[in-house]
Please model this.
Amino acid sequence: MAEIRLENIQKYFGAVHVIREVNLTIKDREFCVLLGPSGCGKTTTLRAIAGLEEIDEGRILIDGKPVQDLHASDRDIAFVFQLYALYPHLTVFENLAFPLRATRMPDAGVRKSVTSVAEAIGITHLLKLRPSALSGGDMQRVAIGRALVRRPKALLMDEPIGALDAKLREQMRVELKRLHLENGSTSIYVTHDQVEAMSLADTVVVMHDGVLQQVGSPSEVYLRPANLFVAQFIGSPVMNIADAQFRQEAGRSSVVLHGEAFEIPSQALTMIASKPAKDIALGIRPEGVVLSHAESPGAHQVGVHLIQPYGPFDIVDLTVGTSTLRARTASGFVSGKGQRVWASLDASQAHFFDKATGASLGFRLE
Ligand SMILES: Nc1ncnc2c1ncn2[C@@H]1O[C@H](COP(=O)(O)OP(=O)(O)O)[C@@H](O)[C@H]1O
Ligand SMILES: [Mg+2]
Model:
């Protein structure tokens, strides 16, 4: 097991700068998830760590030792790809045994290691089968088993369950989490799926255009997004973002969104005045938009134009000025399109961003 450290990594494909000054430390036994949209450089970063891709600048350290000039096979890192590359002519047992036989491990040792890994990942009953007889989920279990069998220093996984159907992905997420809790191998897991990232990670690393946007625990990136990109990439339905103007009248403070005023604590105005930002965007997740049937202090009357029932809750689109504000309500709270309700903002869930840079102003209200 190992600590992995990336120092000032730069990578170009021709003129395209795909990894930009990436600095990151993944602690021993940590489960780190690289999360970002397609094309942002996740796979390239993972392949660089594994030694499958050369970097143009920077250092990669495993347990403090620079490895960027070592061949992939000398880095002692295992890689699981989205498409399980199993050997079709070998049984599951022999697929698992392959990396061990390559090191000329004696038969008894091979049998012991394969049996123990097969038990850990729950595929003992499949050992005699060939890959063609396996389901997609089982094939990926075998691929993960084969990566783990030689007890690598670290396990790298590139969208390993992306090709499976939704139900199986959910089941595999739980299995991967359990396996990591039992095994504790330092893991770097790549995905574009924020649900996967949030549910698996100790640390989420959000990436965009080759740049690390934020590194934090799932709750940190959710509750304190560092910038507008992270704020809108994490969370579903997506956070409401609107240009915000602030007003103080008759002892009341309000934020004007899409031309409509919502009351907020005056503390917000004091905090914003203390920041250099000129234009501010306010972000609030649907669960921070609070609806009521009766007029309440600080609330604003709005019309409902769309209801999406999710089961445990509804997502309701409200017309605010010329735009939409999305709220999360108890299911059935509003009965139909056109209904008028009172909306207020839960200021403790409001995020404030500098529009010029996209950066969070870095404070939350009580
Ligand atoms: N071998 C390659 N040659 C040229 N460009 C590449 C190569 N591999 C990836 N790219 C480009 O590098 C960028 C990052 O790709 P990748 O790391 O695969 O992103 P992700 O895994 O986040 O989808 C993309 O713009 C992609 O088109
Ligand atoms: Mg990729």
Q: What stands out?
A: The mean pLDDT is 94. The pocket of magnesium ion (ligand 2) is lined by residues 42-43 (CB under 6 Å). The radius of gyration is 25 Å. Residues 97 and 110 are 6 Å apart (CA to CA).
